[in-house]
Description:
The chain has helices at residues 14-34, 68-85, 98-102, 130-142, and strands at 42-43, 50-58, 88-90, 95-97, 113-118, 121-126, 147-150, 182-184, 191-198, 201-208, 214-228, 231-244, 250-262, 275-276. The protein is of the alpha+beta class. The protein has a domain at 39-212. Strand 11 (214-228) and strand 12 (231-244) form a beta hairpin.
Amino acid sequence: MLFCKGKNFCDINPFFYSISFHKEVLKRHFKDFFSRDKFAKNFKEEKLPNIITTHSSNIIKKGKGIDPISQENKAINIMLACNKINGIIIHPGEVFSFWKTIGKATKKKGYKEGRVIVGDKLKLGTGGGLCNLGNTINLLILHSPLEIVEFHKHSDALAPDAGKRMPLSSGTSVYYNYIDYRFKNNSNQDIQLFVWCEDGQLKGELRSEEEFPYTYDLVEENHHFEKEEDKYYRVSKIYRNTIEKSSGNILNKELIWDNHSLVMFDYDLIPKELIKI
């Protein structure tokens, strides 16, 4: 999650932050009220027949400086949010909104305190960890022909890579309700989204009525770390390839993120061979 950056009005003290937050929430409500977008709101337990793409990742992160309690709380938060999304149908022309589907994450609804990003610092906040869910949905959509209509990013260097590096394994930012994640079904058939927790993993599945003629692949180039003054940054360029199923030919290569992410974990855990002098 990501809200204020730098020394803004909202940074002066908690009272001014609250004013700024509620102002942004109200602005979003007004914008949606007058919008012509039709938001997805129908659900179906029965699965559409074709699997477009799937994704899974570990929910709990372990390592130096990572609080296990906030990680356990994150797992609860993600499970609660998944229950609000699972099986949603996005009809042709409709827009999926993360926050319109989930609603506000509150203690009354059972949400716990997990890690959130405020400026360039990790702190605790109710509903923390839902960025992981937003990121899983983003990866599903990037591997489909659907159109991302709203995306906000934060650092994708929150923790050391576990095993082989996967582009965009994190980095999607959501915060109720004005920092949203939205995609549009610009196809001519229904799309269905499933997200759930199983055996310590967050799983996602995107389905359709019929198969699409293309697949999509994410490629990261020139991945390394650089030191700027007293801070380290992950630097890379991430592309999305559109591949024709029938021939295997790459039809399009699109730069989707010119990555320059502040490293938010212990610098001693940065692989030395990836540090560019």
